[in-house]
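cron nightly-structures :: item 1 of 1
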Amino acid sequence: TTDLAELRVRIESSLPGSHRSVPAVIWLDPVPGELAPPIVPRGRYTLLQKNRTFIPHLQVIPVDSVVQFPNQDPFFHNVFSLFDGKRFDLGLYEAGSSKSVTFSRIGVSYIFCNIHPEMSAVIISVATPYYAIASPNGAFLLRSVLPGDYTLHVWIEGVPQSQLDHLIRPVHLSAHAVDLGVIRAPIPPAAGLTHDNMYGNSYPPEKSPY
């Protein structure tokens, strides 16, 4: 039997005065030719729309998995994503109904509603079983990793992709616990994802329901 490795790392902001907790993910891609490609079974997931909120806000899923988008609010939603991950527009659909999307592409998908600007979520589709979501204090723990050479990727909400690209690094894991220490990134002090609607325009003022 092969002894498995364990990886620990923590993120902190490099900006003065910014110490807030933010959604963040790490994942390990095996270096081609060094390890056999891992088996990553696709599955079915749910991103619920309720109280004008996507639940959960952040998901990591295997590539080619299906995500259901049920609407449990008593009004219409229009879920869309026009970014570098999976691009789609589900159109208007009413309370009690659901639509689904197959995330057939590796990458980060920012999910919004074309009616309600306060709604946002993130789905990261990966081709590896080795990933972890940060704890509230910014710590990651990856257990049961096959020893070998990997590429470490980091995603932190609010940090530009150009900055995240600088955090990519090679990692060698042997059959014991490895602590990479602290990863510092320019985490902005403001929370939330600012965005336009799917037509590239600002959201119009909300009309009274009465």
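cron nightly-structures :: done
The longest helix spans residues 161-165.
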